[in-house]
Every structure is written in C-alpha cells, then in structure tokens.
Amino acid sequence: MSDREELSWELFGDASRELAQEIADDGFEPDLILSIARGGLFVAGSLGYALDVKNLHVMNVEFYTGVDQRLAMPVMLPPVPSVVDLTGAKVLVADDVADTGKTLRLVRDFCSDHVAEVRCAVIYHKPHSEVDCEYVWKRTDRWINFPWSVLPPVTNRTPRVLDA
Length: 164
Prior knowledge:
Residues 9-150 form the Phosphoribosyltransferase domain. Keywords: Glycosyltransferase, Transferase. It comes from Nocardia acididurans. InterPro entries: PRTase-like, PRTase_dom. The protein is an alpha/beta fold. The protein has a single domain, classed as Rossmann fold, CATH 3.40.50.2020. The chain contains 4 helices and 8 strands. The protein has helices at 9-26, 39-50, 83-86, 102-112, and strands at 4-6, 32-37, 56-66, 69-77, 90-98, 117-125, 135-139, 143-145. Helix 1 (9-26) packs across helix 2. The longest helix has 18 residues, at 9-26. It is globular.
C-alpha cells in the first residue's frame, strides 16, 4: 500500500459528482460557491456544473509551500471578495482537502457573519482537521497526489508581490 492517496483526473470526475449528489441529497441549495484557490477551483467548478450554480467566487489563500511545508497561519491574498457580494447568501465553500482545517476556518469565519448559511465541501478530509466539513467524498490521513499539482510547473516563475 502506498503512503500516498492517488487521485486521477478520471477519479476526480467521479468524486466531484458523488460529492455534488451528497449535497443535493441533503437538500442544501447554495446561492453561490466560494472556491479556495488554487485546489478548490477544480472542485468549485465541478460542483457548480453538477448543482447548477453559476455564481462562483474565488478566495486566494496561501498556506502550503510544499509537501508537508506550510506557513504558520494561512494568509488571504488580494483581491479579497467583498462581503457585500456574500450578504444574505447560502454559501458553499469548496476546497480540495481539509488537512489542518486552518484555511477552511479562515474562509468560513470570513463570511459567516454576513451570510445566511455557510457549509463546506471537500474531496478529502483528514482526521486532524480543525473543521468538520458537512460534505466529504473521502477521509484519509495520507498525503494526496492531486492530478493538478502532482507534476512540477512547466515554467519557473519569480515570485511577485501583488499590490492590494
């Protein structure tokens, strides 16, 4: 048995569809899906199509810097979504994995005072996560190789700091 969880593009398609079905079966009808970039973009897009939700927002959060390497705390990167756009909405926060849960907690707490309801959906959930997500495709304690991040970039970019 491998020490890593392997998610292929094909399996991701099945996983995201099953996750969407879990949300639909629960009767939750989000007004918008808030994606945590970058891994959550794939999840949010898939859920948006499966749940017929066209209103997708993105929140950029920096936390992981490599395999099992992370910053002390997650940091929101600009542009930060306007809470005006979230006010009164039923929000589904989408990400690829709830590992420590710190990123999900940051995003959920950011919008919880402004929205009617917020729930979280992830492909993978780890047992030590600070956040118990309402919707989970699979639980694991292994490192996950996602199809979108398992290969190195095709180019090496110099990191840039964006103005807020």
